[in-house]
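Before the break, one more example. Copy the sequence into your notebook; we will annotate it together after we see the structure.
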Amino acid sequence: MIVAHIVSHLNTGGAEKLVAEMSNIMSRKGITIKVITLFKGRGVPFEILETKNIELIELNYDSKYNPMIAMDLYKHTKDCDIVHTHTYYAQLYASLFIAKKN
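Here is what the structure looks like once it is written out:
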């Protein structure tokens, strides 16, 4: 099973820390995890993320209003069984182009 967690960034914040901690726990249980960040930002959640076992995809967009974000999310999540969004822009762009599995 492949699970993607999409968040705006991994700067210090509640949703960001939740993503890091939940991803670490799920990875230890044998679930393949992708953490996808939309914008630049690294803080405590980035530091606690166990990136040797988790695929970290940093899109590093400068603008929150770039339609290419949705296309990149599609490209990086089309093989995922579960896509979990955690912040407003993650939800906004993921809802446009996330691949639907039958």
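The radius of gyration is 13 Å. The mean pLDDT is 93. Try to locate both features in your own notes.
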